[in-house]
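Dear Dr. V.,

Thank you for agreeing to look over these. As mentioned in my earlier message, I'm a first-year student in the group and I'm still getting used to reading structure tokens, so any feedback on how I've presented them would be very welcome. I ran two proteins. I've put each sequence directly above its structure. The first is here:
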Amino acid sequence: MDQRQQIKNALQLCIDKRKDELHALSWDIWSRPELAGEETRAHDRLVHFLSQDDPAWTVQSCYKLPTAFRASWGPVGGGAGYPVLNVAFLCEYDALPGMGHACGHNLIAEVGVAAAAGLKAALQNQTELPVPVTITVLGTPAEEDIGGKIELIKAGAFADIDLVFMAHPAQQDASFLPCVALDEVSVKYYGKASHASAYPWDGVNALDAAVLAYNNISVLRQQLKPEWRIHGVIKHGGVKPNIIPAYTELNFYLRTPLLKELCDLKAKAEACFRAAAVATGCQVEMTYPPNTFCNILPNATLANLYEMNGKELGIQFPKEPANFSGSTDFGNVSVIVPGIHPFFYICTNALNHTEEYAEAAGGEKAQLYTLRTAKALAMTAVDVVCCPEVLRQVREDFSLAKLKQEK
């Protein structure tokens, strides 16, 4: 048996031995869901888990963001003078408003910690690795809101990381799904209040502007490319029926397969919002948050390795994965560091962002699939760590994907 297979076998044994601890960790996060930026208990639970795991972990709580953390171990192996290869596993743990962990972020946290712990246990006695290796676990909060990973990128959290791994629960197993670019816009209309029955002619109706804007967008959709998405809500529509609304607010998400296409979609949407203001005599204000989510860059080498390792563990990958139009701040990470973001089945046909999916994410049935995914991720990392040629190919794929994105 070669060295690579021995390491893979060892990490699988480690994860199997710790399955009850890992399930308890995931269930604790699931049972007390916290919104983006407020994940204090999940942060503390994960920090405690890693701190208690092995004193060799260097754990930093509140790392650059109040609910982010970083844990590092190593380096181990490799000859003197070789640069350290820092392999990172990312955790998410924020929940959705009113729905708890309906996107399964408690399982993402479990996968990240399990994969890192398994890989550490398998590498800690290895002295003949081609390069010295460090393992990092990075807790990345607020994916469902501001995009915590983007804030961490700005703060330099990924500056010394060479490879990134995470996995997201879904309806099927897939080594890659093309998560799309995302921008958000807040649209505010300012009119003039008046008595809606006695003096309607003296008012400027901001609700009319909001309704026209919503309908303008609905009409626009028939002219959009099939892969483009725009959807939103009216957050504030007025105060009382007999007062002409002087203020309304809408919130829309805009998505395109490629980041560069967002500019075209934004221009079309903004024309709809301005037209509603002109038609009603309102003033309009459009604001965008500081962070735009990029589409995920693929890495064919990592995807192929993940599928190979997954199949050894019994994962079945569809020949043609279903379309997916979701977005993630991992896309921004994939632009600066080679990585992989596969999806995994958790024994339910329910869809993400539903109450049924939230229930499944906390269930015991999801554990087999979650820990199997953690093993496949860690085994993929082993393939890269143990073979300089594979690492070279991963980096070449990354460079080619970046060039293609920029064209």
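The second protein is here, in the same arrangement:
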Amino acid sequence: MAADGDQSDYFVREIEKNDGFTLKVNQCYMGDVGCVVWDAAIVLAKYLETKQFYEPSTGMNLWADRRVVELGAGTGAAGLMAATLGAQVTVTDLEDLQTLMRVNIKDNQKLISSGSITAKVLKWGEDVSDFLPPPHYVLMADCIYYEQSIAPLVETLKLLAGPETCIICCYEQRTEGVNPEVERKFFKLLEQNFSCEEIPSSKQDPEFNSPDIHILHIRRKV
């Protein structure tokens, strides 16, 4: 991929916001799993707009000035949505996805007025001091699929999440191959330090939800 993000390398997936504006999220024709907008990222992005967080008619906005870190952000779709709602967002992924995230930030900058968004490298299991104090929210869309990354991911959550942090994890439940075992290992490791609450579909976006895509609120055990 061209370092400056040559347009011919990308195709766009649009996510329409409730205010009528549209996020335009570039994806790569070539590349690994981080280069496309997965359905779970769209379900998560639309969940951030639901009225428990954001109700323009009453002026209620839980995202305003909140510090948000998205892990394994890939295209950065969920983080971009949070930024348009007023959050101060850092989208994180490995080095080779920084160009894509930066292209998407640039292309959607006009939708971000009170919020902000920056892209940074974060390798799971490594130092998180750049991202502290603990953010108010950690976003994760489809990060549970790769067995070798389970322990480093949980380690990062332990280092990053404070007592007030809400981790919003959205993932597509996959029944083939090693996926069920990877999920089981993730939750087993997670529950040593965290508790999970599943969000019912009635609290998700009425259009963008699916029986096999789960949204969890994960918090540190006290």
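From my reading of the second output: Residues 179-190 form the longest helix (12 residues). The chain has a mean pLDDT of 93. Does that match how you would interpret it?

Kind regards,
E.
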